[in-house]
Amino acid sequence: xxxxxxxxxxxxxxxxxxxxxxxxxxxxxxxxxxxxxxxxxxxxxxxxxxxxxxxxxxxxxxxxxxxxxxxxxxxxxxxxxxxxxxxxxxxxxxxxxxxxxxxxxxxxxxxxxxxxxxxxxxxxxxxxxxxxxxxxxxxxxxxxxxxxxxxxxxxxxxxxxxxxxxxxxxxxxxxxxxxxxxxxxxxxxxxxxxxxxxxxxxxxxxxxxxxxxxxxxxxxxxxx
Length: 224
Known about the structure:
Strand content: 15-25%
Order of helices and strands: HHHHHHHEEHEHEE
Distance between the termini: 45 Å
Strand order of the largest sheet: 2-1-3-4-5
Structural class: alpha+beta
Helix content: 40-55%
Number of helices: 9
Number of strands: 5
């Protein structure tokens, strides 16, 4: 059995015996890497990475800096960045996730009884957590006055990975108009160009709602 295999198995056996919390940083990184390369044992590779970057610096590094370390290829660098990011996210405060229409309705309940039309945009990160909520139009809804920049401008500034559009129908009808469908299609296309996903467009009334995604108008953009 090679030294590389022995080192890797020894660390895994130690984890099984004493628990992950009792492994040092080099040992944890050895497990993430899995194996080394020719002339670079996995332990030696882990040590080289930690000499170059502290643990707190790893998540800030572009992959190009990691693969500059001899013996560390793109695949293993990606494994490291993904593992560190998972750890970083687990330490963040839990934010509200908007993963279905009901969760969205809870955030926009105030417009459901309005006698004037309101259009709201919800801006989400890549984990569908709410970053920002903004009213972009009030009054008789004239979609010709709603520009793509009104919807996507805040998304690019935040930045946000996706947006959900919501507007109310004071008439009580949840039937989407032709204009509702046209603006949804236009914003969907603009979002693709900008790299910001239009997750859904909800029409709400006092007692009901309709999701244009559920109707099939945003079929390529799931929220789950």
